Each structure stands twice: as C-alpha cells, then as structure tokens.
Amino acid sequence: MPINSRVEYERYLSADLRAQGLTEWKLFYRWKFPIMCFQRHLRYAEYINNCKCGKLWGPYRFFCRWRLSEHGIKLGFSIPLNVFGPGLSIAHWGYIVVNEQAIIGANCRIHPGTCVGVSHGKCPVIGDNVYLGPGAKVFGGVVIGNNTQIGANAVVTRSYPEGNVTLVGVPAHPSRIA
What we know:
By secondary structure, the protein is an alpha/beta fold. The protein folds into two domains: 1-76, no CATH class; 91-178, Hexapeptide repeat proteins (UDP N-Acetylglucosamine Acyltransferase, domain 1, 3 Solenoid). The chain has helices at 6-19, 29-32, 34-51, 58-75, and strands at 77-78, 89-90, 96-98, 103-104, 109-110, 115-117, 125-126, 131-132, 137-139, 143-144, 149-150, 155-156, 166-168, 173-174. The strands form three sheets. A six-stranded mixed β-sheet has the order 2-5-8-11-13-14. A five-stranded parallel β-sheet has the order 1-3-6-9-12. A hairpin with a 4-residue loop joins strand 13 (166-168) and strand 14. Helix 1 (6-19) runs antiparallel to helix 3 (34-51) and helix 3 (34-51) packs antiparallel against helix 4. The protein is globular and about 55 Å long.
C-alpha cells in the first residue's frame, strides 16, 4: 500500500486528482485548491520517506515532513504518512484526525470532523471506496469492508467486514433505508 517507487507516486497523484474531479495539476491550484496542495505534499513526503534512504536524504525527509505538518496545521488536518491508499478525496478543510497506525484503502472520501483513532492499542482497517461523513468517528481494532458509507456523526466501534453497507447512529448500525 505505501508508495515504493516513482511510478507509484505518480499513480497516487493522478488518482488523487481524479478523486477531486481534476484532470491535471496546474500551478494556480496551489492557491485555488489548498486541500489538493496538501495532498500533493502528503504524497511527496510519503515518496521521499519510503524511497530515498541514506544520510544525505535525512534532512530533506525531515523538511518534507515539517512542510506537510505546517500545511496540515493551517487546514486542520492531522494525517500521517502511509495511511491512505490512492484516490484520497478530502471534501473540505476543518479538523481531521487520523492515527498513524490506521490502514485506509483506495478511493476514500473524508469530511471534516472525522476521527480515525486508536482504542485499547488497536486501530481501524478500512477498505476501498469508503465514505466518511462529517463528524464520523471510527475507533479501535474494527474492520470496515469495501463500499461502505459511514454517515454524519456516526460512531463506529464494531466491525462490518462484509462491506456494501451504510452505517448511521451512535453506536453505528446498518441503516434500514428501503
């Protein structure tokens, strides 16, 4: 899942752009789309951290992580390296907290107020094509399957590994929408 080559780095960047509805990076996006700029910093820091080893790269890896942290503070994001798969889509800026041990698959759409955190020393494993609504909380060693939607302000404390479900409520349970 982590970026291990230049080809994977470019694949992650293009998947993130597509997830935001963009086709290619343009310089003015740096000011027009600060979230996309953060995601580019995130992917670049992942690439440098995973692919560039040796003593000479140490200070530059530190600089890349520092720049990512500073950009994240401005937008309210606490998103560590190597957590999200390709196709990350952050809907708006606002606080988003993700634990560094969480594993989140490809094509995740995440909204502000979301927290993916540790409980009893265990972190969530979230599948592909998952939607995390505004204020959603996912804690502990839960497994969330592919194609799952977690509704606004839902608190997920149980596993739903089968996927293809909409979770709502506190504590979260499958929706009974007909």
